[in-house]
Automatic annotation (TrEMBL):
Keywords: Isomerase, Lyase, Multifunctional enzyme, Oxidoreductase. The keyword Nucleus does not apply. Residues 1-23 are annotated as: Disordered. Its EC number is 1.1.1.35, 4.2.1.17, 5.-.-.-. InterPro entries: 6-PGluconate_DH-like_C_sf (IPR008927). This is Isomerase, 3-hydroxyacyl-CoA dehydrogenase, Enoyl-CoA hydratase. SUPFAM superfamilies: 6-phosphogluconate dehydrogenase C-terminal domain-like. Gene3D superfamilies: 1.10.1040.50. It comes from Helianthus annuus. PANTHER family: 3-HYDROXYACYL-COA DEHYDROGENASE-RELATED (PTHR23309:SF40), 3-HYDROXYACYL-COA DEHYROGENASE (PTHR23309).
Amino acid sequence: MIKSGRNGKNNGKGYYIYERGSKPKPDPQVFPILEEARRQVNIMPGGKPINITDQEVVEMILFAVVNEACQVEKLLSIFSYKYLQLQVQYVQNICSKHLF
């Protein structure tokens, strides 16, 4: 991105086109750059993007929070079921506001 002169807000071009007085808009000229980067690092199996449902995204976030709560319990030996419940509720609140 930087090699192609895309320095973000500094020069008005990056992943988005920045114009004064308006919201940043996705720059379609970036798509070939992203595709080449994906190809080079072989992120997408078979060169095709994977499909992830909203539910899978929520589960990935929730599992990370549960894992972190378990690490806290293991390291500090102060695990509380209530703490875990609060963490789960927190993630559910965030997900319900932003994903659905």
